[in-house]
Design goal:
The complex is a heterodimer of chains A (182) and B (596).
Chain A lengths: L2 E5 L9 H11 L9 E6 L5 E6 L7 H5 L5 E4 L2 E4 L9 H5 L25 H5 L5 E5 L5 H14 L1 E6 L2 E6 L5 H7 L2
Antiparallel strand pairs in A: 1-6, 2-3, 4-5, 7-8
Chain B lengths: L14 H7 L3 H11 L13 E5 L13 E6 L6 E6 L3 H7 L5 E3 L7 E6 L2 E6 L8 H12 L5 E4 L2 H4 L7 E3 L3 E3 L4 H7 L2 E7 L9 H17 L3 H7 L3 H9 L20 H7 L1 E5 L9 E5 L9 E3 L3 H6 L9 H14 L3 H16 L18 H13 L3 H5 L2 H8 L9 E2 L2 E2 L9 H9 L12 H7 L5 H21 L4 H6 L4 H11 L5 H20 L12 H5 L14 H15 L21
Parallel strand pairs in B: 5-10
Antiparallel strand pairs in B: 1-2, 1-4, 2-3, 5-6, 7-8, 7-10, 8-9, 11-12, 12-13, 14-15
Helix pairs in contact in B: 2-22, 7-21, 12-14, 17-19, 19-22, 19-24
């Protein structure tokens, strides 16, 4: 079962712990600029905190445009072969997401390799903004959310002591929740 | 960096210096002390601003995000510092520096661009008068970069408002002591950073293990989730329920509209997201949006507790949206919400008591809860317009123009008090009286403990608690990390000694580090004593002695003068200072060492 690293930007706080742990995992240093995931924080219009990381595209632009064939896809992971790479950085420019990075200390551009199947950023994210989900899970969260939004808005009619009343689904259980407190 | 000549140099420091002063506030105090004989005017070119994160900043470590701004304060004339979170400190260290020392004055309004070892003063007259976020946006456009980190001053700093701030990452501020005004006096609109260096740690693997264990520990705390939800806004309800929420210029301690401005209200009607400083899982930053009403569209990262009180209950404002607007204005104009709220409270009470006339305040119908007038006044302060010009000078300027307002004021050493009351808990009065930068709670926050358990404490107990706080709390400002994991989630303070040992490669206990912090306390006292500070300045404001709390469980309370004097005597004894609050004559010798 293939898994994908996905991002839930609404949950991202911009703490950059993902950057810190990625650099440690791959290069053994405390250096967020050597991370294969970057958090872009924009404010105040729009307000977005967006971790940007390789999507392991099935038809990757980076591979397509690499002049030496240094980029290959293996088991759903797109990798850069250092032996063939000439550091022209065409991949950096080609990626539509800007998810390939480079640093003066490092010979070739670098990108996410999913940490061999146990992505550390997912493990360390304190907000659940990074998820490692099975392929079929992509989009499901949004489908569920839209269904719930619909349910949230709909009303149910009922009769209490002979009187017709309406109640929104969203209100049910709210009083109990408020009483319980934080 | 000498802004007058445009010359900059990289100054190395040795291990001895590093271990003695640690970093952050420690480096800043030492460097300021060295320059002190040359400094006459805090707004003159000889004053310096030291911008220093700590040895733990930017590393993979909980809360590794704090940067100290240290200077001779134009508000108080004495030692001043203010802390800022966000990403600035991490970037400065990645640029290769543990401190940035700014001296002199640029010829025209400029920004400093530090790109690793390339340091440039960029003339920026087009940024004059721009609000902080506007200036930041323009700089990003010019440099074609979303990734540089920018700390900027607003019109407040440019206009030398004595409590002007430095703003970064939307809503992180070096808020107190008027640091922004010092940058303004140097014609420095912003500092822009880019860096990519590895950050040093002696035991990288060991640090990672400790950090990941720590993150698990923090996440397992029962209040972790609640903390992420409300952040510091949880303090509003806590303090109001405890009966120590400053209300209407500190007259009352309970606010009838507290529920309209607390963390629960925020969560319910305004909060749309979370933000965090570098390396922090607690994400106490709250992004709030006003969805309707006259302030519709106002979006801030905020408020924090202090702002909710000082622009809220302290001014009789029971409208969360109005507080958000005030918060946004202060962030963008670059002025301190605490000082602003405090001074406006004095003004409103002055008007109410007939000590001021409407013409004194340019006819502005200021009153408790008059949010539109209060927000208009914030603009006037930043631009030094009309009565705003007097307010911009701080408590001293206000008292100079209107001496009749002096008994209403709540300030120590010239700096406006923050959002706790000292009459309910005398240890907090001592905390405010003896804080080294003026009336701020950063150094000692003893309210909670004393309310909980302090009824039977002896005077010595109270003194010991204040001194303990004043030793451990600023240690965080030296290490360059945030106190909140420790103070809010019970994170073991000994872990910080472990972190420091792993990073420096030199074994330290917490006591070792506390000793360093204790030394810096004497150092900041020496700096301020050289500018005339002594016992007479270590008292809470007269209002605390004379005006009883009007409402709440502590109604009727004042600080007892004799009791306070006794505490102060014990305090000086414990610190090894004279009865007049001066460290021994030879103490200064201990800080005359060289960097290498």
């Amino acid at each position: 079962m293939a898994k994908r690293l996905t991002v839930v930007p609404e949950r991202c706080s911009g703490c950059r712990l993902c950057e810190a742990v990625c650099a440690l995992q791959h290069f053994g240093v405390n250096n967020p600029k050597k991370s294969a995931i970057r958090v872009l924080a924009l404010y105040p219009h729009p307000v977005i905190r967006m971790p940007v990381v390789c999507r392991q595209c099935a038809q990757p632009k980076c591979r397509e445009n690499c002049p030496t064939g240094a980029i290959v896809s293996e088991n759903g992971v797109v990798t850069i072969d250092a032996g063939k790479c000439i550091s022209c950085r065409q991949c950096v420019i080609s990626c539509p997401f800007g998810a390939i990075f480079f640093h003066d200390d490092i010979a070739t551009p670098f990108k996410c390799d999913l940490c061999g199947g146990h992505p550390q950023c997912v493990q360390q994210c304190p907000k659940g903004a990074l998820q490692f989900v099975p392929d079929h899970g992509l989009g499901e969260a949004n489908r569920l959310a839209s269904v719930l939004r619909y349910a949230h808005m709909s009303e149910v009619e009922y009769v209490e002591k002979g009187e017709r009343k309406k109640l929104r689904y969203a209100e049910i259980g709210r009083e109990q929740k408020e009483r319980a407190g934080p | 960096m000498d802004l007058s000549s445009g010359e900059s140099r990289v100054v190395p420091f040795g291990e001895r210096f590093a271990l003695k002063y640690v970093g952050g506030r420690g480096f800043g105090a030492k460097l300021l002390f060295d320059q002190l004989p040359r400094i006459t005017d805090p707004l003159g070119p000889e004053n310096i601003v030291v911008i220093a994160p700590g040895p733990l900043t930017g590393l993979y470590l909980p809360g590794a995000a704090k940067t100290a701004f240290v200077t001779l304060s134009p508000l108080t004339g004495i030692y001043g510092d203010s802390n800022m979170g966000g990403n600035f400190g991490a970037e400065l260290r990645q640029a290769g520096y543990d401190a940035l020392v700014l001296a002199g004055r640029a010829e025209k309004l400029s920004y400093l661009y530090v790109d690793g070892d390339e340091v440039t003063i960029v003339p920026a007259p087009h940024l004059a008068g721009k609000r902080c976020l506007e200036a930041e946006g323009l700089i990003r456009e010019e440099l074609h970069s979303q990734e540089v980190r920018i700390a900027a001053i607003g019109p407040g700093g440019e206009n030398l408002v004595r409590f002007a701030t430095v703003n970064c990452d939307w809503s992180r501020n070096a808020g107190r002591c008027g640091v922004g005004a010092v940058l303004g006096s140097k014609n420095l609109k912003a500092i822009v950073l880019r860096g990519g260096s590895d950050l040093p740690a002696a035991d990288v693997a060991g640090l990672r293990v400790l950090t990941e264990r720590s993150m698990d520990e923090l996440a397992a705390h029962p209040l972790f989730g609640f903390w992420q939800q409300q952040g510091l806004m949880s303090v509003v309800d806590y303090v109001n329920s405890a009966g120590v929420l400053p209300t209407r210029n500190y007259r009352e301690n309970v606010f009838e509209a507290a529920q309209a401005i607390d963390g629960f209200k925020m969560e319910q009607d305004y909060k749309i997201g979370d933000t965090a400083c570098f390396g922090c899982p607690m994400s106490c930053g709250n992004i709030c949006l006003v969805k309707d009403g006259k302030y519709k569209g106002t979006i801030t990262e905020g408020p924090e507790y202090e702002t909710a009180c000082m622009l809220g209950s302290n001014l009789g404002v029971g409208d969360f949206a109005a507080i958000l607007k005030g918060n946004q204005l202060c962030d963008d104009l670059g002025i301190d919400t605490i000082s602003s709220g405090n001074l406006i409270g004095v003004l409103i009470e002055g008007l109410e008591s007939g000590l001021l006339t409407p013409s004194d305040v340019d006819g502005l119908p200021l009153a408790w809860g008059a949010d539109e007038q209060i927000n208009a006044l914030l603009e006037k302060i930043a631009r030094r317009e009309g009565v705003g010009d007097t307010l911009a000078g701080g408590s001293r300027a206000l008292a100079e123009r209107w001496p009749q307002l002096a008994p209403l004021m709540v300030q120590v050493k010239g700096m406006e008090q923050s959002a706790y009351d000292g009459r309910a808990t005398i240890s907090m009065a001592l905390a405010y009286g003896t804080c080294d930068i003026g009336a701020h709670h950063n150094r000692a926050w003893t309210v909670g403990k004393e309310l909980e358990a302090g009824a039977r404490w002896s005077p010595q107990d109270r003194v010991d608690l204040v001194i303990y706080h004043q030793t451990i709390r600023p240690l965080f400002d030296m290490l360059g990390v945030c106190r909140l994991p420790w103070i809010e989630l019970g994170f073991d303070e000994n872990h910080y000694a472990e972190f420091y040992s792993l990073v420096t490669g030199v074994a330290h206990t917490l006591d070792d580090l506390l000793a360093r912090s204790r030394a810096i306390w004497d150092l900041t006292r020496l700096i301020s004593a050289s500018r005339g500070i002594s016992r007479k300045d270590d008292y809470p404001p007269p209002r605390m002695f004379e005006r009883p709390v009007e409402r709440g469980p502590y109604a009727g309370r004042v600080v007892d003068r004799a009791e306070y004097d006794q505490l102060l005597d014990l305090y000086y004894q414990a610190r090894g200072w004279s009865r007049d609050g001066i460290p021994p004559a030879d103490r200064a010798r201990d800080f005359k060492d060289t960097l290498v």
